[in-house]
Here is the input.
Amino acid sequence: MNLAASPLAEAAPAKVNLALHVTGRRDDGYHIIESLAVFTRFGDRLQAFAAEEDGLAVSGRYAAGAPADARNLIVMARDALRKAAGSRNAFPVAIALEKNLPVASGIGGGSSDAAAALRLLSRIWDLDIDAAELARIALSLGADVPMCLAAQPLVARGIGENVELLPAIPSLGLVLVNPGVPVSTPQVFSALRKRDNEPLPPLPARIDFHSLRNWLEATRNDLEAPAREIQPAVADALRALKRADAGFARMSGSGATCFGLYETGNVAKRAAAAIRARHPDWFVAATRTTTAEAAP
Here is the structure.
């Protein structure tokens, strides 16, 4: 029993789909994808400590959009891990979520929170659980949770559960922009006109800012067009990034968050400040992606 006097903490980074190709659809309705995803230094944050009874408290800029009850994926993750571990090995815990990422925004906020909860509770409960079992639990919580469990540069295939880690991708400067509008993922997928698109092209042999940007020019986010039709503000976010001299700009996931790629972190910070000055009500964050070495 890990009864540390101070809470244990875990980062729940934003997930950014640099490219997302929809290549098919299964008989059960799940879409088959190929996606190059990275994770950022900026995100939500979880803390947990032993308590007399389970609890979840939510704070932060976007707390109002995150329920503190059984609807929250953190609670589902806690209960699923406890069921797998056995209640005798999983004492009650109080969890605090600092919600810094917009809800329903295409950057994996809830899925990353759930993955962080699995990592954090595995530590606080001192569980002897292998990676395959943890990944199985993650998939039971949602198609994005296995990749968020890895939280490092990767290509995800299938419905998102087949993860290929990419240790050679360097840290990248990014600006994340959300115009303050939620977008329904099921609605975006329903609006897709074509579901049997080409897969991702092979990655360059040597990956740096320039080779990756050039590779991205030959890729797509197949969800961007339907998301823009449903929520035209996505186009406003992309225009703002291009006006701020992004080396490359695209929507992440099912939107509405968009990202701009910048050659250095300092250039990204200046771009974010310029966008924030023009759009003070938007979510705007300058950050860097984490490398495989910095993964949890």
In short: Residues 173-294 form a domain with the Alpha-Beta Plaits fold (CATH 3.30.70.890). Residues 50 and 93 are 5 Å apart (CA to CA). The chain has two domains: 8-165, 173-294. The mean pLDDT is 95.
